Amino acid sequence: MSEAARPMPFSMPMFRGLVPKKTRPWIYIFIAITFQFSGGLYLGTLNQMMGETTLMREDLLMCLYSNLAGMAIYFPLLFRMKFRFTNKTLLCGALLCNLVAPYVTFLPLLWLVCFIEGMCKIQGTFECMSNIQLWMSPTRDFTVFFPVLHIIILGSMQLSDLLSTYLMYHFHWDYMQLFICGIMMVDLLILTVCTRHFRMFKKFPLFGIDWLGAVLWAALALEITFVFNYGDYYDWRHSPVIRRVSLSAAVTFVFCLGRMFSIRHPYLEPKMWTYRYLAPILVLVSLVEMLLATEHVLEETFLEGVMHYGTMTGVQLDWPVLAGCLAGCLFSYWWMHIKHFNYLRLIIIGLAGVILYFLGYYSTISSDIHISQLYLPMACRGFGYAVLSVTFLTCAEEIMSLQHFSNPLPSSRCSTWSWAA
Questions:
Q1: Can you give the pLDDT at residue 275?
Q2: Spatial distance between the Cα atoms of 124 and 132, rounded to a whole number of angstroms
Q3: Labelling 3: which of 75, 162, 294, 307 has CA 20 to 30 A away?
Q4: How far apart, in whole angstroms, are the C-alpha atoms of residue 145 and residue 139?
Q5: What is the structure's pLDDT at 327?
Q6: Burial class of 244 by CB neighbour count within 10 A (0 to 12, 13 to 18, 19+)
């Protein structure tokens, strides 16, 4: 997919003339960060929400996984929606979902709201970052774009957890939703005053999209997540609920495969599996996600059950993870763009960071350690995860055509939240 390209001129004609040209890309970076901060619910506020509502931990985690599912399943539609809707429409959708989520108590509706918010979140981020890609690299070099994109995504994930925990501790858990609504209103104000409705291409109709296939794949993702998330609560196969949902997931999967191989343009095209290195990359991503998810569960048990760390103490470990993520993205940029080294070696370095995280934890497990002894393992986790995430997307972009590039993303994200559950 990557080819030697000539430099292309960069412009942002959607801005009004009163906005200085040098500030326009930074405005879009700010908006992309606010989108990444947004979410139906926030991991840092789970404990207080469980204490004040009738919702269980599994119910709230299902909301978070629904948000992830919305982002992953919606990915193949990003380009189509970019040519159909404008920034203002997408921002309004994310704003409304953030306003509604704190007041919805009916679980299926709350899951739906979080799912739609995830779709708005990924579309808004994509819209902002795709418009400034030429600003980052006049030749659309993805070895520049993906490291910068992951700095925004992974950095926002850690900062969002920190901010939600601080607001919950000092004020109330719903202050995070109010804060996000406030910055979304700032976004709307910026877009209203500084931008105009502008389309680089003629409005593209939404014909030829396999909407039924999209619904089936989304249903399959949520069914699998439900089984993994509620399995322990319902006692797995001994529960009729888990058996029914598992059977439903199997039937849905059969329908998904049947539709994939029977229609001309399915939602996820089977041709994507014909690319030579795609399957090994997806297997590697799934294994890394499995290891990290399992270790993360043990890590939480150790911090809460053995060390008896409170919320404000445990969240301090987000800072070394943030530092590791930033270092991993910058290192990937240096390795791929500056030095043009081999990607396989970069993957090995990323795996080494994850292994050092495991070894660091297992060698320091004790009830009398200081929290600072955990900083280095956490930084290694952030570094390794960032390097592997950037390298995966870069490899997928280089081995696949633009038509199929967005197809493996739902598969890789499915493994992420399934193992996390």
A1: 74
A2: 13
A3: 75
A4: 11
A5: 94
A6: exposed
Residue 417 has pLDDT above 50, yes or no: no
List Cα–Cα distances, 183 to 24, 28, 348, 382, in angstroms: 18, 13, 40, 27
230 in Cβ contact with 58 (< 8 Å): yes
Ramachandran angles phi, psi of 224, nearest 5°: -65, -40
Q: Which residues pair with 195 in a beta bridge?
A: 15
* DSSP symbol at 379: H
Q: Are 124 and 32 in contact (CB under 8 A)?
A: yes
- Cβ contact 1:401 at 8 Å: yes
pLDDT of 221 > 90? The answer is: no
pLDDT, tens only, 354-394: 889 888 888 877 777 888 888 898 899 999 999 998 988 88
pLDDT digits (tens, 9 = 90+) for 100-122: 766 677 788 888 888 888 888 88
Tell me the one-letter amino acid at 57: R
For residue 96, which amino acid is it?
L
The answer to whether 326 touches 155, Cβ cutoff 8 Å, is yes
- Amino acid identity, residue 341? F
Q: Which of 162, 61, 72, 163 is nearest to 118 (CA)?
A: 72
Given a contact cutoff of 8 angstroms between Cβ atoms, the answer to whether 145 and 133 are in contact is: yes
3-state helix, strand, coil in the chain (%, to 5): 75, 0, 25
Cβ neighbors of 401 (< 8 A, separation 6 or more) are: 1
CB atoms within 10 A of CB 279: 13
- Quote the tokens at residue 9: 């001129």
**DSSP one-letter string for 229-286:** HHTTTTTGGGSHHHHHHHHHHHHHHHHHHHHHHHSSS-SS-GGGGGSTTHHHHHHHHH
Backbone angles phi, psi at 276, to 5 degrees: -60, -50
